[in-house]
Design goal:
Alpha/beta knot; 4 helices; single chain; 5 strands
Length: 140
């Protein structure tokens, strides 16, 4: 299953970009990143058998293990692409939220979208590590 991060804003050169690159290099699954302008532009079309996850402060707060199990379930059901949408400063409207299969939040705080991208890539690496029985993640 391909992991596809679709994010508003260009990351450029910043400390968050270094973190994103560090974790992307560690993920063993195929990963694609599509950057969009802060406003306007069209989200790339979804392929068949696609799941859309939106990062949103109103979303579920999943543990790393629960997040890994979600990815595992979708992978095992034959989902070809799992897309992760990260919005700009204003986030997503209700119509956009309704189009998502899952809303997730990294806590109730609002995070800058560049930092959210770094946090997402770390969680994707952690989840794929959990699923490959890598000893990095520790519960408890």
């Amino acid at each position: 299953m391909q992991l596809h991060i679709i994010a508003r804003g260009k990351i450029g050169r910043c400390p968050e970009a270094e973190l994103v690159d560090r974790y992307l290099k560690r993920i063993s699954w195929p990963v694609k990143i599509s950057e969009m302008p802060d406003k306007g532009g069209k989200v790339p079309p979804a392929p068949p058998a696609c799941v859309t996850v939106m990062l949103d402060e109103k979303g579920e707060q999943l543990s790393s293990m629960a997040f890994a199990r979600k990815l595992e379930g979708w992978r095992d059901q034959g989902v070809r692409e799992c897309r992760f949408l990260i919005g700009a400063a204003d986030g997503f409207d209700d119509a956009e939220r309704k189009g998502a299969d899952l809303l997730i939040a990294f806590g109730r705080a609002t995070w800058p979208h560049m930092l959210a991208r770094a946090m997402l890539t770390e969680q994707l690496w952690r989840a794929t590590s959990i699923l490959s029985n890598h000893p990095y993640h520790r519960e408890g």
